[in-house]
User: What shape does this take?
Amino acid sequence: MKKLNKLSIIGYGAGDAANNLAFTTATMFLLVYYTDVAGISAAAAGTLLLVVRIFDAFADVLAGRMVDRNYSKRFGKFRPFIMFGSIPLLLLSVATFSVPQLGESGTLLYAYVTYAALGLAYSLVNIPYGSLAGAMTQDPGDRAKLGSARMVGGLLVGSALGIFVAPLIKPGADLQATFTTITLVFVGIGTVLYFFTVLTAKERVHRAVPNVSLKQSMETLKGNKPLLMLCISSFLFLSGYLALTSVQLYYLRDVLGRLDLYPVLSIIQLVLTFVLAAFMPKLVRNIGKKHVYIYSSLITVAGGVVIFFTPASQVMIGFAGLVLSLVGVLAMSIVVWALEADTVEYGEWKTGVRTEGITYALFSFTRKTGQAVGGALAAYALAWGGYKSGGVVQTPDAVFGIQVAAGALPAVLTILAVLVMSRYTLTDAKHAEILAEIRARRESGDAPKKADAAVEPSKDDTDGTTETATSHQPHAAPTN
Assistant: This one.
């Protein structure tokens, strides 16, 4: 298959930048907005995040089925959803950060409705977007570049939010006006980025079955053990990571007393992104995606331990714990999407039907439920510690609650994620064999045999296998 050009890779990365104008803004600031601006209690906000994000997870499955069921000869399966769903998504982000004062019940109801609508709109754009990478190329080098472009695009937005927006979240500021202005500006920027993606990131992978039935979708998922293991591990990891993300601002502001370090952390994140994106494909080739995932997760565990046990007076040590956690998260984020793409080919190998939509949707479903649990646990930890909004000095119990959410929860949940991932069987070497067999079937016109469905990857396969990239041989897909 012809290699992807730079414009296609950059265009794909622009799509995740656009996604994160809505998604990262919500994950970084929505809990703070609800407690400090809308006046919703921490416990009520935690329940809201849990309920709506679980709803979002089911919306992902619905979106995955819609993607698999539809096909446009002109634009393919995925780009029409991005074209028609992007502007409603961005406008709903504005609505979510514009909660009116309607009394306790009315305010809470408005928050539920707008955040749920935002989640549904995000699913209808993000599931097609995430599925698009596997349909653009099967070349491992190009998949690595798409994963890096996606991570860079998303983290450029995250870094900009940390550098320019987070310092504004301080007592006495007109935060409602701040969030309204920011989200309105994002509507214009996001629209341009989304349509750049639509025009440049095109599908090129052969598709034997353009419109996939529900039965075919279920068949590809039923025996996909590698996908199941990846989903469980990602659920645990994301639960821990979202607990940290949800209270990161609280930790810097209310525990360390150094909100000014938030933009510094964002700049470090930006630098780390480019450094890791540069050498991570080589590391993947040397030790395999599975081992990169596990070792990166252990770095995140170490960061969580530092955050939890560091006294509030030791500012630089606590900040170093945040940076350490960040290194692990970024490194893991490079490979996780490539691992998901590998499971698409595993399902195709077993059934003969390629179902990027429902495969990505199931993966996203578990990640969304992880985000729901993590965000809720963080909010409950705040409530348990007795967090008080309004810029007051927090009690020692409230400080401890923040440290639990930022350090202990991520560390424990990530250890569990590593234990699950240690049993992941779809190695890089096995994935290369699967691709070779799929291509051989296409050339011969053969359907998959039942015997294939019973074959599981050999336990003797190792992730350390180094692939040699050529234009005619299939390989593992290293890479957000």
Q: What stands out?
A: DSSP finds 15 helices and no strands in the chain. The chain has one domain: 10-205+215-454. The CA atoms of residues 68 and 212 lie 5 Å apart.
